Amino acid sequence: EFCKGNMASFWPADFWPSSSPDVNSLDFAVWDFLEGKTNKTSHPSVEALKATITKEWGNMSEDFIKTSCFSVRPRIEAIIRNNGEHIE
Known about the structure:
The chain is mainly alpha-helical.
């Protein structure tokens, strides 16, 4: 109730899609970032791949993370305009 009364652009939990890759920043931003970084070279083992993922996870900039988080609301609005369908 506090958020609803004090935040002009507050969306209640029941308004958010329950499980959509279009609005999950791990799906639309982070995994894409990691895939691009890890696919630049081949990895001789699963452990080597895990090490690269861990390294690149640590290399994500704060700006990238913020941008990913701040893009969630516009993505939800785009899904609404698209009648709940997938967006690019």
